[in-house]
Amino acid sequence: MWYNYKINKSRGGRPRKITRQSMLKERLLEDLKNCMKDKNVVRKNVIQMVRAAILQVEKDKQITLDDNQIIDIIAKESKKRKDSLADYEKRGFD
User: Fold this and answer.
1) Torsion angle, CA of 55/57/58/62, rounded to 10 degrees?
2) What's this model's pTM, rounded to 2 decimal places?
3) How many CA atoms are closer than 13 Å to the CA of 6, on its beta-carbon side?
4) 22 CB contacts (<8 Å, ≥6 apart)?
5) Sequence spans of domains, the chain
């Protein structure tokens, strides 16, 4: 894995390890910025939910996810939303 060291002034000048972000994380961040510029609220909310799920897994497991793991999380979140939609429709919510 490729690492870059950056000096953090707030930590007394000690270097901290910076890892290169995965391509999907970078793409999600760029898409989020574009949605905010275009004022596309629905798409912005979806991207924020996906990014939150990714961050939650990374914090819980204390790891940095690669693109394949991110795709798995997106699929899992999508399945949860589809299942919820089916339940709401079954109960008569619109």
Assistant:
1) 140
2) 0.71
3) 9
4) 64, 65, 66, 67, 70
5) 21-91
